[in-house]
Amino acid sequence: MGKNLNGKELGRGLTQRPDGRYMGRAQVEGKAIVLYDWKLKELKKNLAIAIDEAKRSNLMPDMDGKKVTLSEWFEEWYSKYKAPTLKNGGSPSYKRRFLNYYGVRIGSKPLADIRQLHVQTAIADMLETGRSTKSVREATGILQNCIEAAIANGLMSINPVVGVIVPKCEKVERRVLSVEEQEIFLKYLERTKSWYEEMYKFMLLTGMRVGEIGGLRWEDIDFAGKFIYVKRTLSYDYADGKKTLRMTSPKTENSVRKIPFFGETQSILEKQMEKIKARREELGERWRLPEEFGNLVFLTSRGSPIGRYAVESDMRCITGQINDMYRMEALYGTTAPKTFERIHPHALRHTFATRCFEKGMTPRTVQEIMGHANYNTTVSYTHVLDDIKMKEALCVGDFLQNGNTLNKEVTEYESLLGII
Questions:
Q1: What are the φ/ψ torsions at residue 29 (nearest 5 degrees)?
Q2: So what's the pLDDT on residue 414?
Q3: E runs forming strands in 224-347
Q4: What is the mean pLDDT of each run of 10 residues along the chain (420 residues)?
Q5: What is the torsional sign of CA 212, 136, 146, 105?
Q6: What is the structure's pLDDT at 161?
Q7: What would the 3-class secondary structure string for 361-402 be?
Q8: Is residue 200 a contact partner of residue 192, using CB atoms and an 8 Å limit?
Q9: Crossing angle of helices 133-152/116-128, nearest 10°?
Q10: Would you say 245 and 307 are in contact if contact means Cβ atoms under 8 Å apart?
Q11: Helices 345-358 and 308-332: angle between axes, nearest 10 degrees
Q12: Whole-angstrom Cα distance, residue 288 to residue 294?
């Protein structure tokens, strides 16, 4: 990120010279682009135009919409237009989304021959085979961008995506632990001496994404200032059927952030440090942590980096065992049968945000801690739980009696909360 003379970040490839002029740099297919302007806004516009022209000049030679298939054009469009805008120069999952949805259905058709009916038929087939409406909409968005670039390059005269009907995504209630469920979850971890006990508690205390948890290093933690710095994420990529694990930059620019210590954060980290030290000494040469991943805070019991799939698998096991406990209690006791709904890593992030709002934290503070670019995203992570609703309803009193006022007894959220 370049900066102006006052130290303010201007964006990728943008800087301000000592004489006050702004300079923009970019490189497209080995061709360097350097522009200057006294006005930053004009420079950004001209740089975008220059980059677009450079991309077009490097497109497939002798292109003809009657000869170039959709899949061929997608590969060209992806490498020239999309990949440079993605983290680390590209995303295998992004390509798979197109190829597995539209590529296998209409990818062999020449661009100029694709009609709206072809796209709509492909959508119907995806839904019939069990694809979710959300994933179909995402794939259609990729197709839309790809087609628009084809039209801009004279390969197509009409946009076959315009007017197609994709069912709206059903609103899904995000999973969040109630205070009672949170206590049950934590007591289970403590009773079973789960290897991941400290990690799960840490997730409930920070709201960090599971990839950020996997990428956290001890040098990212400031014990003196009591802050956690989120700088990277651990991600999985699949290429040619092979899984690779690597460190990447966080999800968005706002995801690079620092989180203050809440509650028992320091004691939990100290316990984790002792646990890792003891296990490493116990395993010796069998300790699996690769040197290139650095001094990670949270690991598997064998010392491997901890990824999303391992955490999801462990959470499924925990959910199953808690439900087994419920069934035994109902069978041999007097309690009514109940179910502990399945939880996943992101549910702990939703739970953290909900606890923050229950505690009365300001929206702006929660937004910063969560690493969201806008407030609406933060609000979508909060949930009004049934126990809170009931206590608020009790405060109202006789609702139909206009003369009544609110019960003076205010809801004490402190008594409803778990570890935070």
A1: 50, 45
A2: 43
A3: 227-230, 233-239, 242-248, 257-260
A4: 80 85 82 86 84 64 80 91 74 84 95 95 93 91 94 91 86 81 95 96 95 95 95 77 77 83 94 96 92 92 92 94 90 83 92 87 87 79 62 62 51 42
A5: positive
A6: 95
A7: CCHHHHHHHHCCCCHHHHHHCCCCCHHHHHHHHHHHCCCCCC
A8: no
A9: 160
A10: yes
A11: 80
A12: 12
What's the CA gap between 257 and 229, in Å, rounded? 6
Among candidate residues 200, 205, 249, the one with its CA nearest the CA of residue 228: 205
CA-to-CA separations, 173 to 176, 177, 295, 370, in angstroms, rounded:
9, 12, 37, 19
pLDDT at 87: 66
Across-strand partners of 15?
23
Going by the DSSP 8-state scheme, the letter that residue 101 receives in this structure is I
Strands 227-230 and 221-222: antiparallel
197, two tokens: 């006990």
CA 151, CA 227: separation in Å to the nearest integer? 50
Question: What does the block give as tokens for 5?
Answer: 């003379």
The pLDDT score that the predictor gives to residue 417 is 41
User: Full-prediction pTM beyond 0.70?
Assistant: no
Sorted by sequence, the CB contacts under 8 Å of residue 63 that are 6+ apart come out as 153, 154, 155
- 316: amino acid identity, one letter: R
Per the CB < 8 A criterion, the answer to whether 307 and 236 are in contact is yes
Q: What are phi and psi of 145, to 5 degrees?
A: -65, -40
**pLDDT the model gives residue 138:** 92
Contact in structure between 354 and 181 (CB atoms under 8 Å):
no
Backbone φ and ψ of 240, nearest 5°: 55, 40
Query: Could you tell me which residues come within 8 angstroms of residue 299 by beta carbon, excluding any fewer than 6 positions away?
Result: 276, 289, 305, 306
By the 8 A CB rule, do 376 and 405 touch? no
